Structures are given as C-alpha cells and as structure tokens.
C-alpha cells in the first residue's frame, strides 16, 4: 500500500470512527447475529493476490460490523464497561504507527520512562503509598497471576521457581472473588485445592474473622499461607472487602496481600470514595484497570507493588541476546511480568490523563454515580422489584419478584425479562447469581451514558414486564 | 474532546505517521537519549484541568519521539524485526475505535468468528494439518506458557490443576531455546530443575539422540516427561531443531511436543522453505508470530493446537457472570489462554493477508532472504570476519577475528565495534553468544529494508574496523 492510499484510508477510518461514535445508538448494543452468521460470509482460503483497501474496508462494514457488540454504546450496562475515549484512540493510532516493541529500556527509552511517570501519577491519583512502584499489565487476570507468583516465591524463599511448587501452600479469597483467582491459582501450580473461599457477610464482603480462622487452621496444620486476595468491587455486585482488618491480619501472618480493584479503583480518584481503598497500604500488590472505567482503550491494567525487587526476582532471566550495557541503570519492564514483548501502552494513559485532567475524569465518575442513584430510585419506586446487594458504586443487582415462585422459576422469569431487554438493541445488561439467587445486573460506566439511557432501560424493563 | 477535534487530530496523527514512515531514515534507529533524559522532561504530577490536544501532540513530538527506538526503520537489524504495515495500522485504528473487548463470542461474535477464519487461513498458509485449530495470543511467551500448562495437565491427568503441581515432571528444550521456556517452566510451577537443556550439534540444532537419552533416563528414574519444546529458528542464530525425529521420539514416549517457530514460521509461507517445519505434524502445539515477520503490528502471536479440547480443559472456568445461552454452540476464546480480556486482534491479520495476498507476503520474505545472501557474501569477501552459525533464514551471526586475542578480548573488541555501528544511528544490530563466543547478530526483516541498507551497514562495519 502506498503512502497516499494509507493517508486516504487513514482519514477514512478516522472519519468512520467519528461517525460511528456519533451514530452509535442506531446500532443494537449486543450484536444480533446468530452463531456462524459471520463465518459463512468469509472465504475459507486467503487470496493469492492482494486486494484493494476499498473492498476490505467495505467488507469490514458489511460483514464485520453487524457482528460487533458495541461496547462504546451509551446503552452498555453489561459486565463491566470498557470505556474508551477520543484521546485514548489518538494515542493508539500513534502507538500503531510507531510499531515499537517495548520489552526493555533500550527498545524505546521513552516507553519505559513514560510508563514510570504515568504509573507514579496514577498511584498518587488513587492514594497509594509513595514508595510503591507501578507497571502496566494487559489485564487484571495477568496482574493477579503476577501477584500469585510473587507470593508463591516469597512464601517458599524462591525455591518454587527453582525446585518446582513446594507444597503445602494455600491461597485465600472471598467466595465472590473473580474467576481469574481460581485460574491463576491453577496456572501458578498451587492447584484448586489450595484455594480457600472465605465466606462473605450480608454485603457480600469477605468476613475478616473467617479469614483469620482459615489462616490459623492452615498454619496449625502445617500449610503455609502464601497469598490473600481481597477484592475492592467484586464482579457480581462491587462488594468491597474491608481492607484494613484484612491487611492487619495478613501482616500479622506474614502473608502476601493482593488487592483486586479492577473496576472500583477508578472510584478512588474521588476523595469521597477514597475510603473504599482504606487499608490498601497494608497490601503488597494492587491492581486496577484504567481500561474499565477510566477512558483508556482496552487493554491497560495498572499493577502496583510495594517492593518491586520481589517482582523482578520472581521473573527475571538474563539471556545474552537481551543484555544491554545499561541494565544496571534502567528499568527493564520485561522482568515485571509474564510476557517478554510489550506494547507501548503508557502513551494512551498519558493522553487520557492530560486531555481530561483529574477533574475531567472525576466529573465522569461522579456523573455515573449520580445515574446509578437514579436507577436505584426507579427500582425502589416499583414494589415488584428488589435490589439484591448494596450499591457501592454503579453496579445494581436486581430482579422482579413473583410471589410463590421457586428460585428456579424466578431465574427463568428474570432471564426471559433480561433477554427481552437485550433483544431490543437499546441496552445490554448481563446477569449474575448472589447466594444462588439469579439477578439482572446493570453496570454504569460508559463514557457517554446519560440520564436518558437510564430511563430508556428502565422503560424497556417495565414494558417487558407487562408482556410477561 | 469533541468530535471535530478528534477528526482534526485523527487526520493529523494519520498524516504524521505517513510522514514519519516517509522520513524515518532521518531518525537514529536506536534512540540516543540517556537514562533519565525523557523522565526529567515530564512533570511529576498529573494536571488538574484538561490540556489541549495541541500541547499533548507537541509534547509527543518533542519529548517522546527522541526516546523512541525506531523499529520500523529500514536499518533495523536488532533482535527480531517487528514489521508493521499500513493495512495493519488501519486495522488497529478501527479496532481502537470500536473499543470492543472480545473475551467471549457474545461480546463480539465477529471477532471470534473472524479469528477462527484467519487462523484457519494461517494454518493452511504454513502447511499445518487441517484438523488443527488456532487462537491468537499476545506473544510467543504466552503461547509457550499455554503449551507448558496443557502439557502439565495432560501428563498429570488434570490433577495438577486440582491438587497442585504433581512431581516429578520434566521439560526438555535445546540449550539454544528462548528464555521464555525457562520463564514458563517457573511460572507453571515445574521449577527450573525440571528443565533439561539438551545439547545441540554444530548447527546449534537439538540432537534427537540426546533428547531420547534424557527421556529414557528420566523415565527410568520415575520422572514423568511432560513437554518437549523444539525450536524452529532459535533466537540467537535461527537454528532449526529437526522436528521429524524429535516428533517421532515424543510420540513414542507420549510426551507433549510444542514447536516454537516465533520468527521462522513466516518462512514456511514459501514452498521452498516449508521443509523447516517438516515433522511439525507430530507436534501437539505450535506458535509463530505474525507480529515479527508478517507485517502485522505487535502484538499478534498465532498459536495452533492439535486438540483444542485439551487446551480448554486446562483453562476453562465458568463463573455465572460470564455464562451465555450460547456457550455450547460457540467458541469462547477466553478459555483458550491465560487472560480473560481479549483485544480484537484478528482484524489486523485479515487486513494484512487480504491487502498483500499470499504472493505479496511471499515476495517480501524472498526479498529478505536475498538480502541475507548479499550480506553473507560481503562478510565472506573479507577474511578478517567469520560467520559463526549457518544462515538458515535472515539472521547472520558474525564477528571480526583478531589473531591471538582471548575470547574476552574478542568480545570487548566486537562489542565496541557494534557500539560504533549502533551509535551511527543508521543501523541497529544486537549481539548474542554461541557456545560462549560473542558475536554480532544481524537480523533482516524490516518491511522496507533494501539492498542499500544492507550495504550501508556493511560500510559502517568496515569504517568502524579501520578506526579500531
């Protein structure tokens, strides 16, 4: 492709994105294709000769777009948001153009040093202690795996890396912790049986006394507690484990504390929500995802550690072909995580934070909290509905009650209701279960979601009810 | 940022990239900043109020750019290339604009189905068996870790996932294998001591008889061989382990065979180089990186498995909040790897393969092979130099000989030579050691590298020699 064609289609892509965002509400939030619909429109073998960008771009619009679920739609209430923003996309464009692989300082010093600086900014923005250091990971799954590995090594005096997993070890998390904890426990070789799910209280937050009991029990039985994972903002209901008592317990048992605040971390930008992270200073590692609620394109996960030397000691390997004359003077982020290769992710964080400023981001978060308040009021105004968990942030777990219905029937009823709302194309919500009780789950965090979108989804729910 | 500002700066970024590529030879390949140079130009705290895109974009050019090492420079001969291309960048732009997180089918059916299709294309393009299935990983480090984990589970009847790593297990790779093998062995809980480095022959390829001896020895000793990692195209010298005999041995011992062809896999697009992968059909898993030598922006690693059910059995977890009504009918790629969250990476592969066509990509690879031939001839024409390893593809390991010098002095001499070449800004090479012998290492694969660039780097080396 010659430069002029690149310019032409580059401008077209930019304009297409601007139009797409402008008109995004004309698309159904959740793609309406059926399994196989996209695949059957694609040839089973690649072309021998190159094709024109016209036809590729046309196929993108005709074949791919109908199969896209529109995460940037203001009617996005599913899972957690992954809210992007114009400055973040501009940075992604430049990152793609530079095409730099930033595994070590030498392979792009600016990528490493900008990452240090924006991670220091972020650390201060959410109030973590000044001595901590940060590194960008792709996702919270990876960050949590890094924590589990560092904890494993610390608990076994770096012998697991050398001699293979040394049993018996144990890992602790609340029964509401994210599935990446179980996945990480398996990957790191602890095994599922080493994972203790600690009971939660009526707010779905981990009960510190139960954690202490489990630690005590294991210690007496000769099992070495390696890692506790506390969640600030669980996936199902954004329950917040009480970090301060958990932290004190972990410190007294000498066990690694990792805090998963993947979604909720952004809320700590607000002084009035900072209390959610109270006690985080007791932790050894902490993760939150700017790619969820902080206007930064997926993927971008911010991982902070109290003592980076424990992280690098877990991961560093020094093959000859990666040595540089400056290794003693610089950070080589390849030793701060799983992968060797690294994208230049700091650029988009820098663009986002500078373009919005602290105040701009805070305003967005406050607006989402206000919208969550409105939606809660709407539900509470209708006695047919119930809210199943405290609304700490912007996730609301609710369902329609039906007298005399079994749990199973209630699940079917509400699942049907949810499907009707999602089929409308105007909103997309997902579900969860809390203590076995099925509920719809509305998560607010899309950058452009307005009060209108909130009222629309409520109307859709009301309308679906009357049809059932 | 309003839409018009986005359009304006979007066009500016596209034009900036087009100009950057046009004028890239005016930049020094390897950034010339010193440690701390970039950092000291950046404020230590984030702004409270938003800043204009003018000033951010200006700072990108003034502060960040001098700290970039230019991977897309035609004088790039370091490490392995990571050659991007205009159609790949266009796809990255659209991916960023869509901002979709493609963890499961439902969160963007087109992303999943396009990934299935392009991975089928790729599989056919390099001649892997038709029954195999593919998934995109971020990097080969991650793909190799996936292989080590699947192998671990298979060898222990899925009990390691459940009960924690079950010893004693062993993993085998040549002494020239990539450092990600050792890293993966540690992460997966095998431990460094479980890794057997198998000796290599005079071409730096694994000696199958030595592998067999090690397997036999371990088996007799009650150690369970879990995984063999063969490399097609080692990092130091692109040595190619003989896959066919290795494959037969692995099959007879019932041990998982993973093939790491991260760089060399692209060469299998050429019928005349297909022999490098002869025997790959015996393997259980295979990885190669389109982000190295196939015009696709970093990151994009193609991971293929013979039996995907073993992969998903290793990774799948079904939390309620991720269940969809279609899970039995579709692929959910979150269960095919480490991370839950996934970028829409298939789009860039689709753009690249369609835009270049098979022939276009093959032409590029053939041209690089021709350039490697020219560089070899230049070295061989000068008796002061020696080539230290067979040139299987486009990586040449060479050094200047100095009669009577110790290895240590030779290393210092050639390292100085290398530093002089790199300091010129016109080329960037890295080094390695082969059997303890230091050498310079020239890797050809940048999309726009021409014969001129090859002659330039040779001239630089000659000039540096005369100054020493």
User: Which segments of chain A are poorly predicted (pLDDT under 50) over 5 or more consecutive residues?
Assistant: none
The separation of the N and C termini of chain A measures 56 Å
Oligomer: homodimer
Most extensive chain-chain interface: A-B, 154 and 153 residues
Tell me the CATH topology of the domain at 100-343 in chain A: Aspartate Aminotransferase, domain 2
Proportion of residues in β-strands of chain A: 5-15%
Determine the structural class of chain A based on helices, strands and strand pairing: alpha/beta
CATH level-1 class of the domain at 100-343 in chain A: Alpha Beta
Q: What percent of residues of chain A adopt helix (DSSP H or I)?
A: 40-55%
Query: Describe the biggest sheet of chain A?
Result: 7 strands, mixed
Our count of helices of chain A gives 14
| Shape verdict of chain A | globular
Could you say what the CATH architecture of the domain at 100-343 in chain A is? 3-Layer(aba) Sandwich
The ordered H/E elements of chain A are HHEHHEHHEHEHEHEEHEHHEEHEEH
Give descriptors for this structure:
homodimer; alpha/beta; Aspartate Aminotransferase, domain 2; seven-stranded mixed sheet; five-stranded mixed sheet; 14 helices; 42% helix
Task: Sum this structure up briefly.
Chain A has 468 residues and is an alpha/beta fold. Chain A is built from 14 helices and twelve strands. In chain A, the strands form two sheets. Chain A has a seven-stranded mixed β-sheet with strand order 2-8-7-6-5-3-4, with helices on both faces.
